[in-house]
Amino acid sequence: MENVKQLLAVRRQKLQKLIEMGVDPFPNKCKRTHKIKTLLDNQKEYVNKQQKVIITGRLDAMRRQGKVGFGNVSDESSRIQIFVKYDIVGEVNYEVFKLLDLGDFIQVDGECFVTKMGEYSVKAKQVTILGKSLRPLPTVKEKVVDGKVQRYDEFSDIELRYRKRYMDLLLNPQNKMNFELRAKIIREIRTFLDSRGYLEVETPVLQPLYGGAFARPFITYHNTLDIDLYLRIAVELYLKRLLVGGFEKVYEIGKNFRNEGMDRNHNPEFTLLELYQAYANYNDMMDLTEDMVIHIAKSIFGTDTINFQDQEISLAKPWRRASILDLIEEETGFDASDFDFEKIKAFCKKNEITIYPTAGPGKLIEEIFKEFVEAKLIQPTFVIDFPKEVSPLAKEKPGNPNLVERFELFIYGNEYGNAFTEINDPIDQRERLEAQMKLRELGDTEANLIDEDFLEALEYGMPPTGGLGIGVDRLVMLFTENTSIKEVILFPQMKPEA
C-alpha cells in the first residue's frame, strides 16, 4: 500500500512540474490526421515520404536512454512505436516527454520511418500531452509463443473486471469484442425488422401501473404528481395500445427492470426486444423468430451454424416445435394432459418439486418442465402450448381450455424468447387479470395487476395479434459463447463491497 502511495505521489509531482513549465496537462483541443491502423496498413505510402502525420492515443510503453526515447502509443484501432529524439523535438519538448507516464494520453506530430532495428515507427517532431494519468495501470506482460504475442498477468479477477469495466476493456481487448458484437447484433435486429415493415417506437419507462410479466417492480416517487411510479417490467401493454391506435407492426428495444434475484441469466436491469404484429398469431411469431436469428447469424458470421460451449448449434430451419406436455412425457413418462391436480401434486412430491400455496396444476406443470426438460433442449426448440394458468395475456388454444397459444424458445437449455397469440377479447382479458389479483391476495407478489386503462383500450378493439419478446442480453450471450449475463452487460449490477 505504501508503494502505491509513493507511485501516486510521483505522478502528481510530475503533473505539478508540467504546470510549472506552462504546459496544460489537460488541454481543450487536439488534432489527429490518421488512425494508427491506417498507418500500419499503408506503410509504403508513408515511410520516408516526409508526409506529416498526427496520431493520438494512450502511451502504453516507454523507454529512454540519454537524449533518445521510444514508446508505444495505442488508439482503438491499433498500436505503433514512436521515436523521440532530443535534437528533433528540442529541449523543452523532450523534457515534457520525460515527464510522461504509462497511461498518459498524448498527441504525436511527426513522420513515418523505419528504425535501424527494422521497426516501423513515427518519428516525433512534437509530443503533446492530452490527459495525465494519475494512477498507474496494472502491468500486463507479453511473451511470444509460436510466433504469436500472448498477454499474461492480466486484469483477470472476474468480480473486479465487472466492477471496473473500464480497466477490463483497456487491459483485456478480447472482452471489448463482446460489446462490439453486441452493437452489431442490435443493429441487425433493427435492420431485419425495419426491412419487414416494423416501426420502432418508445414507450414509458416510468409507469403508473406495471404489467406484462410475472415480476416484482422497482418503485419510485414523483414529487410533483405526488404518486408512486414503477420502473417498467415489460413494454407489452403499451405496445398493444398502439395496435388499438392503428399501427400494425411495432417494436421496441429497451431497458426493463425487475426487482428479483440475480444469477448467470438475470440482471435487475436488462434489454428486451418486444414486437407486436396485427393479423398474426404465435405460428407467425415462430417463423419470424427463426428468420431473425438466422439473419443475425448469417449477416455477422456468414453461417447458420454456431458453437456454444463446444456444442455445435444448427440454426437452419425448421426448428423443432413441441408441446410442453409432450416434452414432459418424453422425458419422464408422466402424462399431465388431464390437468388432474392431485395426480400432478403427487408427482411433484415424489420428485421433490416445491409446491407453492398459490400453485394450481398449470403452475406445477411449468415447474415439472423446468426440472426435467429445460436443460436437455440443446438445439433450437419452440416449446408450445403452455398452461393457461401461467399465461394470463395469451389467447386460449381452440378445443382445450387448459392451454394457450404460447411458445418459449430454448437453445442449449436456456430460454431466449417468449411469444403469444395475444388476447384481444377485453372480457376474457379482464377475467384473467381478476384471477391474477386473487393470486396476489393469496400472497403471490409477482402476479399481474389489473390495468383499467389497458382494458378500456381493448374495449375499443384490437386486431388479432401475435406478440414476441426476446432477451437481447441472452441472445448476445449465445453469439459470444458466454454463460454469464455479466459478460455482455457493460456495467452489471453488483453487490456493494464490504
Produce the secondary structure layout.
Layout: H1 2-20, H2 36-41, H3 43-46, E1 53-65, E2 68-74, E3 79-85, H4 86-89, H5 91-98, E4 105-114, E5 120-131, E6 141-145, E7 148-152, H6 158-163, H7 165-171, H8 173-195, E8 199-200, E9 206-207, E10 219-222, E11 227-231, H9 236-244, E12 249-257, E13 269-278, H10 282-301, E14 305-308, E15 311-314, E16 320-323, H11 324-332, H12 341-350, H13 361-372, E17 381-384, E18 396-397, E19 400-404, E20 406-411, E21 414-421, H14 426-441, H15 452-459, E22 465-471, H16 472-480
Parallel strand pairs: 3-5, 8-12, 16-17
Antiparallel strand pairs: 1-2, 1-4, 2-3, 4-5, 6-7, 9-11, 10-11, 12-13, 13-22, 14-15, 17-20, 18-19, 20-21, 21-22
Helix pairs in contact: 7-8, 8-10, 8-16, 11-13, 12-13, 14-15
Keywords, please?
five-stranded mixed beta barrel; OB fold (Dihydrolipoamide Acetyltransferase, E2P); 2 domains; eight-stranded mixed beta sheet; 34% helix; alpha+beta; BirA Bifunctional Protein, domain 2; single chain; 498 residues
